Amino acid sequence: MGSDLRSGIAGGLAVHTAEFIVSSARLTELHECSAVLRRTRKRAEEIVDEARTLLAEAERHGDLERAYLLRDQLEQARDRYGHVLTAYLSLSRKINEERQEILRAQMLRDRNLGLSGVA
């Protein structure tokens, strides 16, 4: 028969501590992914701006064939930017959910240990 790791204050505290460490590591990984996506989003914005500038230049010079191609590239750039932005927003929501879960777990642990939360 296995032991119940959650039984008793010391054992329960060890489990809560381990869960907190895992949650914190997961949150750190999410923040690292967020940083990469933030840079990707910023670069995607720059690409859209560059495509828009090139298109305006081609239209100003009356280069219709080039403008047609650049218009298509601008739409592709906007579409890709939308995908990056959606991923970034989803990850931001996930980070907030993880943070809330960590706070809830800490409050529950404190309540179970008889701490009031007031310093």
From TrEMBL:
This is Uncharacterized protein. It comes from [Actinomadura] parvosata subsp. kistnae.
